[in-house]
Amino acid sequence: MSTALFHPALYASLALCALGLAWRMSAWFRVRVGPDACTVTPWQRMVAALRGVAVALFGRRLFRVLGALVLDALLLRRLYANAKLRWLGHQLILVGFTLLLLMHALAALVSEKLFQGYQPTLEPYLFLRNLFGVMVLVGVGLLWFGRRRERSGFAQARAFLGAAFVALLGFVLVSGFLLEAHKIASPRAFYRMTEQYAGTTDAEQLKPLRALWASEFGVAFADLQQPIAADLVERGRELQRDACASCHAKPASAFVSYPLARLLAPVTGLMDAAGADTWLWYLHVFACLLGLASLPFTRFFHVLAAPISLLVDAAAPQRALSAQPYAIEARASQRALALDACVRCGICDERCSVALLARYLGNPDLLPSHKLIATGALAKGRLLRSGEEEHALRAAEGAFLCTDCGRCTSRCPVGLDLEDLWQAGRGDLAVAGLAPPAQWVQARPALAWAESLEAVPRQHGLAAPDAAFAPLSADRRSFSRCVQCQTCTNVCPVVAHSTDAEHGIDLTPQKVMNLLRLGLSDLALGSRMVWDCASCYQCQESCPEGVRVADIIYELRALAVRRLGSVRSRRQAA
Amino acid sequence: MTGARGDICDVAVIGAGMAGMSAALFAAERGLSCIQVGNAGSLLFASGLLDFLGVHPVPERQLWQSPLEALAALGRDEPDHPLARLDADLIRSAFESFVTALGAAGLAYAPLGERNRKLFTSIGTIKTTYGVPRSMVAGVRVLEQRSPCLLVDFRGLREFSAAQIAATLGRNWPGLRQQRIEFPGYEAVPELYAAHLARALESGELRARTIARIKPLLGDARSLGVPAVLGLARASEVHAAFEAGLGLPVFEIPTMPTSVPGLRLRTALETVVSARGVLRRRQASVRGLSFGADAATITLELDGAAAGERVHARAVVLATGRFTGRGLTAERKQVRESILGLPVHQPASRAAWHQRDFLDPSGHAINRAGLLTDAAWRPLDAQGRPAWKRLYAVGSILAHQDWMRSKCGSGLAIATAWGAIEQVARDLRATATG
């Protein structure tokens, strides 16, 4: 079997992987997220990082970092708290793959050094290799199953690359099992071994051994007479003891490959003739090398970035407790690292408090996992290229409609400080001239917006589809009880503090309710009341008629983004 | 005091208007554990003035200086009227308890006497009432004496016009003057809201600037009338500061509902009721009632903000009000009690609900519709028996009264709540000992 291509390919993949890692890791110091990150140079950031590592290694925080290494990076306790099934899948892959890598792929460096007389065809390695392989496959299956059950309603960003990498992983495993199964069943391999270790290929001489290997080791000889005589097998057992036993155990414990070998028996002759042992080996090994080379360029780079992010987080001053401000040199690097450490698990999307709004507006960039990608794209300048204008507007809408509720941060299995990332991203958007909705809505008076809406055919009216997302504004019963008593206005702190005639409140809450009663909600959409409401809920709690004033006002804001947004883009197009 | 969900409390009060608040307050003061369900928002429509009984008989619109004499006359003419079924001394004790409790919550009332008082309103009409907040009581004497008086209002406060009052009352009151001023800090705001001014005046600085603007206008005035905006939670302090700063009696003039005195009343009642240990479910309503198999407890199924919660009580007081309070529902052919569907005493057909003339001084038959009760305030079922042995009804939901035209709204609420809670205490004691 020729493996001449192996070493060039190995070194090429290693070089690609190393270059890729260097490039990706350098981004942790190069990429600037947030206007404040532009005040420090990559060099300052790198120095700060090195100092941070030194402090972590030789300071009191070492124990916290070690704790994070075990509990967060290895045991994945945050994932366990959020999604038990995914945690199981993830742990199966992590443990199975790591052990396969050490015991099997790096056998020359690890197993042969550690275990005397290591042979891949001996127990317990035969069994363990199958076990680890199955662990990885089951893990992949669990993650795929969990993924299918997600209900965010949007396709995951750049899903294709991720799926391709998972498929590659599966291919490595399946080709490995096939290779092992073929080697078990292959008469050609049998003869190659006997020639090498028993010094003969003579069929008559090998008859007892063949009988034994056919009946107990699964070799699929095409020319064997059935049934096999028992005394022949016994004689074969003696030969086996002398020539083979030091390297070969019965393969029945390879609980995947062995049944697979029996299954392949009818075509083993054909495969032998086609040189299957060589090309299966190439497929298996080259798939591994392809994975190695492409790892830094896919989202599975997180296998490195996520644990590092967790350790950095443990080494950093505690977010809420620290008295001294967390230096921007370190924070800037942590933000860039967060862009890589995100594993795209989507747990944040499931908990996002504006998820409903995201579906209503048809804008995935409201959801944290999508927003993180957009934030990165903006920081790397990709979002500002021509052709990306629509996406940039969507990203701005997503960033500024976020309510900063903090659920994404509290649920992130990688412990990312997403709040800080969102805030930095909003800064970048503002610098890029991508304004929050409140800004462009308030740039024109409510009446001007209403006139623009009037010019548009009524297809955007408060019709059936809105009722699902704006149930209160669409249902007369929710505001028809209003008796215009002014209580909401009287208790409203926003109206109370609006003492500026020019920029003051144009409509009071009770006037907004009255516009709804009159079927003139368009007049309210651009009003300062709707956009300056502090959501203190005093109006709602005081309303003698039980009208949900604050809830309705928040709903109007969502309606405004959609309806005024449609007129806005028409205006811009015109 | 039973607290946790699932426990059984002594009384559940349904409704948080004047009657519901009174019932909860009196129950707590008697040491009964009490839960109250309902939004106190309807109190915002109150004027802060507490009527006892001002008019009788309604068709003649006869005003009474003495509510006690009016009550005696009512008892002779309308023995079925809920107020007529209560002893005069008992009603006065109820009023005393009520204003004492409000005083404890920082809302001071002038001492109650035996007589009704008269004061003028934001449109210059004269209002006869019984309990008057201390911040308004100076206006009573000023109106009697017609002494030199300055009325001040604020530009932008649409619900109050000093000019309108002066135009109405000025003919028989030569010393009545009026001035309109800018409210300091709000010069640029086109429209002002009373509650915002009230809150602003709780700040010492704005208060001082307002007083400084009024002082040069006083002239020979011996008192000052202003719209009812002198503070919310700290109204007594604001009123005292105005009198001290200006050196003469200052009185608030009641404004149109919803008004600052209504906000004060609601806040004070919510404060005092909670402080007395009443459990409150504020943004909730009652979906239905079910009676225990042992007839000892009644279960309330809550809706709204407390949807899904179940409350158990030994007695229930229905204080759900009339149509605006949604205690009664007017259907096409009949009036229905909203929660239990109790029989409502009402005209035989819809044609008889109203008089031909909307402003007929006698009022309309529909205004006297409501629940009939036995002597123990228990609403009756279709057979004329108590619907349940410890279900009571109080306030405006009761039949045989027209509180708006009789000027007896607060009196009806406070007095019937007092009577019913006294009955509840008696009945629960009887159960415990018997």
CATH architecture of the largest domain in chain B: 3-Layer(bba) Sandwich
Distinct helical segment count of chain A:
32
Coarse morphology of chain B: globular
DSSP helix fraction of chain A? 55-70%
**How many discrete domains of chain B?**
2
Beta strand % of chain A: under 5%
Give the CA-CA distance, first to last residue of chain B.
22 Å
| Nearest-integer average pLDDT of chain A | 85
- Tell me the Rg of chain B in angstroms: 23 Å
The N- and C-terminal alpha carbons of chain A lie at a distance of 70 Å
What would you note in describing this structure?
The complex is a heterodimer of chains A (574) and B (434). Chain A is an all-alpha fold and 574 residues long. Chain A has helices at 6-30, 42-58, 62-74, 77-82, 84-105, 111-114, 125-148, 159-185, 187-198, 207-216, 230-243, 257-273, 276-294, 302-315, 328-341, 347-351, 355-361, 368-379, 389-401, 407-411, 418-431, 437-442, 446-455, 464-469, 471-474, 487-491, 493-496, 509-517, 522-525, 528-532, 538-542, 549-573. Chain A contains 32 helices and no strands. The relative contact order of chain A is 0.09. Residues 460-465 of chain A have low confidence and may be disordered. Chain B has 434 residues and is of the alpha/beta class. Helix content of chain B is 30%, strand content 18%. Chain B has helices at residues 18-29, 67-77, 88-104, 138-145, 162-169, 194-200, 204-214, 235-246, 260-275, 403-406, 409-433, and strands spanning 8-14, 34-37, 117-120, 126-129, 149-154, 176-181, 223-227, 250-253, 279-281, 284-291, 298-304, 310-318, 328-330, 335-337, 391-393. In chain B, the strands form four sheets. In chain B, strands 1, 2, 9, 10, 11, 12 and 15 form a seven-stranded mixed sheet that branches. A four-stranded parallel sheet of chain B has the order 6-5-7-8. In chain B, strand 1, helix 1 and strand 2 form a beta-alpha-beta unit. Classes of the chains: A mainly alpha (574), B alpha/beta (434). The interface between A and B is medium-sized, with 21 and 24 residues.
